[in-house]
Design the sequence.
């Protein structure tokens, strides 16, 4: 090797070594552009496309603002009720027996109405939300099984309910009512449990939870 | 110059030094971000993110190995040629500063007292060294026109070298390596033993934060020095004692704190409405209006950086939400868990409970989360715990969630009296009053009920009840006396929960005090290792 060649080789080593070390360091916490990053980005953009937070008057609430009263499923044109800590109509631990007009069981749950707990069924909750034009809409009803199940998110942290808790906080353990009947002689209605990530039909006298839905277009 | 020109060991060690210096500096600059030193903002922008503590300490190990090899070589002097005199002041500067820097790093790792000023020295020496190294590079490239480069980068003597001496040299390097590794494993350099005194099954330990039981005085104490907390340079030595019977482990943890802090983001009524007294809460970095806390972490391994559970920087996870403080995220890369127990002076006070959490795999990315906590998650809980007294936090005005019942019933009493009375009803420790209220003696806030005078405060902490579920697995109470917190806690040796780590012989433990800070805790590198009597 000539002298200048040797200097050149030395220079290359002297530059490459620190550069490769720093690159290794920067990449050690996960390759940018790897599968994991792609999945994460996709999850975030899907959530932003699908959901919108609304206040009690139906006005949009910015992504990182609050409080919000409802969540809109933009693609499905549905508006979902959000539950509350506070002991009033949307109290997250108000329970309801299942009733639809004259079918089902009347008043076997226990919900907050006004300032106290009263016997309750799902029709009561529906009426109250419609009367209040909650989130600006008046076609509140129980969701179908498929609609309710569409809220399930299996990627949440183990031990937490399988639902997006940043949109639907305060999800209780146990069955949530739907409007989907189990075919058969006896009246059984499908429920969905977000802790278990599974559903089952239950008779209407059970005190279950309820998360109502309304179509956006009135 | 210590070695002859182009001597192979010289080339090898110089390459190692260049590599190690790059790693030490790059990872060190990330560590320096929290220090709010001069230029810290710049380092925040350019330094690498992630598990940098592991990189920094591993490079530290590399430096120790390098140092021993150099000393060994200097003693033996296996080369035949005359070594030229050193090549100028710049290189001498490096020879002078580097050993001091390495010694300071080792000092910090072991958490010997006085870490505060050593940290200052270590930071400024890093700056000085970078400048000196830069001068060195510029000198070699420009002033010397690269003339000397081959003498350090190309081992010309290799060709004339006999195989025997090559093997000898590589052997020497290898054996220092092995010696350092043996020293690491064989000594307790990687941990500090905490011997747990056996507790007779009939002895009772009352969990009240007072070490009145005689068993405590016979338990041996270990101290770990923590630094880099809310007051960055202050060393907080934490003393730990442990007792155990067949079912339960008891810990007595005490640390100095000149004054106890109970104030937790109090709400204050202003002319314009309610505001939260805060200083950094909106970016998860509240440093003033926060209660004192202490976290204990348990892991089966003693890897660097809390067994590889802390990843520094604003986005250590590309594509995932950023850390709002820009400081980092706790999570594990392999999905294993580190058990975390979080004592909070106000929030757990009336329930004698610690918040049982864990650091695990990072939570899936979320678009609507305001604070992304990655792997820092509570153990499963059905209900209970505490709630915050606002419907949504805003740096400006907030809407309180609840009002004390008494306030509403008896409109004459002032707010401070209300909360005090409120809390007295709960029959809890005497220091917390005014900083929390109970959910069940409060009612939903409404404007029409709010006749609290301007200037008065409301607590932000609302107690529900003891956690229902795994989150309530750790019992604890603390007291503050004469400039010290003493926390007494108890946990089953094996809870059976997949979110807990069983307390067996050989598990490692870290402690992290938070001095009126939400997330800025002090920490130590070398963990305690629990040793149970057989
Ligand atoms: C050329 C060598 C080194 C450089 C340039 C360097 C640089 C730095 C810098 C800039 C910091 C940040 C100071 C701060 O937290 O404010 C730091 C921290 C630290 N360094 Fe070094 N360092 C070097 C060698 C070492 C060595 C050999 C060790 C030994 C194990 C070591 C152990 C540490 C420790 C324990 C900390 C404190 C980290 C923390 O607790 O956050 N360093 N270093
Ligand atoms: C070994 C070095 C460690 C470093 C550099 C470190 C650094 C950090 C940082 C930057 C945060 C703030 C994250 C944010 O802004 O959200 C944090 C939070 C936290 N750290 Fe560490 N940590 C270390 C070890 C530990 C250990 C050993 C424990 C437990 C004993 C611990 C317990 C916690 C807890 C509980 C929080 C969350 C506080 C809260 O939000 O309530 N850390 N840590």
Sequence:
């Amino acid at each position: 090797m000539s002298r200048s060649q040797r200097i050149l080789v030395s220079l290359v080593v002297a530059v490459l070594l620190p550069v490769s070390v720093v690159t290794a360091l920067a990449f050690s916490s996960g390759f940018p552009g790897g599968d994991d990053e792609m999945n994460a980005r996709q999850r975030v953009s899907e959530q932003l496309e699908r959901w919108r937070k609304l206040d009690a008057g139906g006005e949009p609430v910015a992504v990182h603002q609050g409080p919000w009263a409802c969540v809109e499923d933009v693609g499905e044109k549905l508006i979902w009720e959000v539950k509350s800590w506070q002991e009033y109509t949307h109290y997250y631990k108000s329970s309801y027996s299942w009733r639809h007009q004259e079918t089902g069981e009347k008043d076997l749950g226990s919900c907050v109405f006004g300032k106290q707990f009263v016997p309750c069924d799902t029709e009561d909750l529906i009426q109250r939300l419609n009367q209040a034009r909650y989130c600006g809409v008046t076609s509140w009803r129980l969701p179908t099984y498929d609609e309710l199940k569409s809220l399930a998110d299996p990627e949440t942290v183990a031990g937490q309910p399988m639902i997006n808790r940043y949109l639907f906080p305060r999800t209780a353990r146990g069955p949530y009512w739907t409007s989907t009947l189990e075919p058969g002689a006896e009246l059984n209605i499908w429920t969905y449990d977000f802790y278990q990530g599974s559903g089952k039909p239950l008779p209407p006298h059970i005190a279950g939870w309820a998360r109502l839905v309304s179509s956006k277009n009135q | 110059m210590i070695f002859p020109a182009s001597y192979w060991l010289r080339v090898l060690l110089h390459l190692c030094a260049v590599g190690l210096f790059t790693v030490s500096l790059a990872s060190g600059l990330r560590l320096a971000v929290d220090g709010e030193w001069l230029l810290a903002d710049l380092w925040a922008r350019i330094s690498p993110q992630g598990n940098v503590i592991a990189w920094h300490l591993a490079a530290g190990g590399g430096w120790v190995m390098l140092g021993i090899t150099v000393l060994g070589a200097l003693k033996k002097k296996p080369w035949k040629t005359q070594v030229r005199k050193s090549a100028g002041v710049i290189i001498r500067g490096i020879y002078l500063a580097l050993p001091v820097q390495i010694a300071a790093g080792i000092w910090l790792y072991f958490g010997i007292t006085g870490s505060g000023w050593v940290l200052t020295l270590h930071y400024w020496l890093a700056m000085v060294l970078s400048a000196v190294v830069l001068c060195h590079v510029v000198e070699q490239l420009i002033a010397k026109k690269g003339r000397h480069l081959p003498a350090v980068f190309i081992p010309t003597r290799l060709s004339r070298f006999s195989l025997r001496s090559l093997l000898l040299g590589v052997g020497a390097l290898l054996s220092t390596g092995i010696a350092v590794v043996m020293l690491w494993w064989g000594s307790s350099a990687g941990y500090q033993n905490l011997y747990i005194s056996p507790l007779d099954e009939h002895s009772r330990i009352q969990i009240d934060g007072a070490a009145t039981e005689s068993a405590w005085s016979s338990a041996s104490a270990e101290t770990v020095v923590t630094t880099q907390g809310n007051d960055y340079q202050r060393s907080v030595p934490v003393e730990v004692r442990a007792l155990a019977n067949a079912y339960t482990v008891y810990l007595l943890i005490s640390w100095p704190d000149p004054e106890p802090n109970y104030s937790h983001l109090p709400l204050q009524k202003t002319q314009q409405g309610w505001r939260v007294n805060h200083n950094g809460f909106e970016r998860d970095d509240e440093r003033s209006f926060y209660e004192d806390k202490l976290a204990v972490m348990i892991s089966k391994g003693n890897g660097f950086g809390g067994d590889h559970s802390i990843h520094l920087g604003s986005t250590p996870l590309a594509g995932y939400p950023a850390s709002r403080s820009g400081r980092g995220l706790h999570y594990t890369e392999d999905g294993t868990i580190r058990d975390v127990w979080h004592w909070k002076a106000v929030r757990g006070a009336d329930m004698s409970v610690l918040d049982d959490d864990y650091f695990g795999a990072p939570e899936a990315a979320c678009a609507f989360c305001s604070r992304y906590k990655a792997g820092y998650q509570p153990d499963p809980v059905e209900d209970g715990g505490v709630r915050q007294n606002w419907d949504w936090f805003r740096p400006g005005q907030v809407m309180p969630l609840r009002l004390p019942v008494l306030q509403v019933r008896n409109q004459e009493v002032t707010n401070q009296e209300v909360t005090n009375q409120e809390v007295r009803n709960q029959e809890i420790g005497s220091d917390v009053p005014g900083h929390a209220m109970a959910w069940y003696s409060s009612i939903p806030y409404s404007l029409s009920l709010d006749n609290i005078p301007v200037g008065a405060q409301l607590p932000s902490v609302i107690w529900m009840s003891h956690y229902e579920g795994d989150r309530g697995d750790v019992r604890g109470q603390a007291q503050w006396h004469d400039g010290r917190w003493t926390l007494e806690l108890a946990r089953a040796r094996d809870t059976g929960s997949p979110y807990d780590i069983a307390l067996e012989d050989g598990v490692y433990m870290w402690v992290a005090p938070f001095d009126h800070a939400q997330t800025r805790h002090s920490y130590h590198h070398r963990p305690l290792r629990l040793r149970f009597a057989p």
Observations:
- Chain A is about 25% helix and 25% strand.
